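ARCHIVE CARD
Drawer: 12
Card no.: 0347
Subject: one protein chain, sequence and derived structure
Cross-reference: see card 0346
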Amino acid sequence: MNNYIFTSESVSSGHPDKVADQISDALVDAGLKNGDSTTRVAIETLVTTNHVTLAGEVKNFNVTKEEVKEIVRNKVREIGYEQEGFHWDKLNIYNEIHSQSADIALGTDDFGAGDQGIMFGYACNDNDAYLPAPIYYAHEILKELKTNGGKVLGPDAKSQVSVEYEGGKVKRIDQVVISTQHSEGQVDQARNISKLAAKEVLGDLIDDKTNTLFEDRILSKVDFVSSVCPCAGLSLLNYSGNSESGNKRGSDASQNEWLYKSTEFVSRLI
């Protein structure tokens, strides 16, 4: 199949999934720093409105409960959350981390991590980063938002890019979706930042048939979305959702993810 549309999504460091990832990662780093070759860390993190729950099993962790709380707060502050619904200094942190069971230790001590998963990925010549164009462009849009968002945009953002391929080569952009947070009264500024980010990254690949959707969510009116993200002794360095859409614009699941309490704005970039 040489003619098709491929859709990929990227989320910012302030997206709930990424927040959970980064908290788990920070705790793994602390455990490995204070432990040794026998250290095992399997932690799951759940985040919701001013609430973080930690659960899992550890061995030779050597991180106190107070240090765990400090790591969580510092990571959330580093990400940039100081809003009413999710503030690093106001978080209720529930720590249910406990010692690794002997049965689990039998597997992890001799055979490695006890969790498993299936992922896919490949290097290609779509760009200098050797990434498929859809995920590359989605990542780059978020970088632009972070660089130019200033005090207008909040930490949570998403970008979704649908690329049309012809003869196996990138032809044009079929659809762009950008979702951001902003303070009340900054709708126009947020939308302009999103437009400029898309133009800067995608350039001439956008044409008069490209569909664009910019979503803006007011920080004070939207609760923080809950998310569970496990980390079993391995740092999850990156997260992206990918779906091959054929001649569609994305799966129902990926479309439904955009149904937030938000003001939707549809326009043409050119």
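Annotation on reverse: Confidence is low (pLDDT under 50) at residues 225-270. The radius of gyration is 20 Å.
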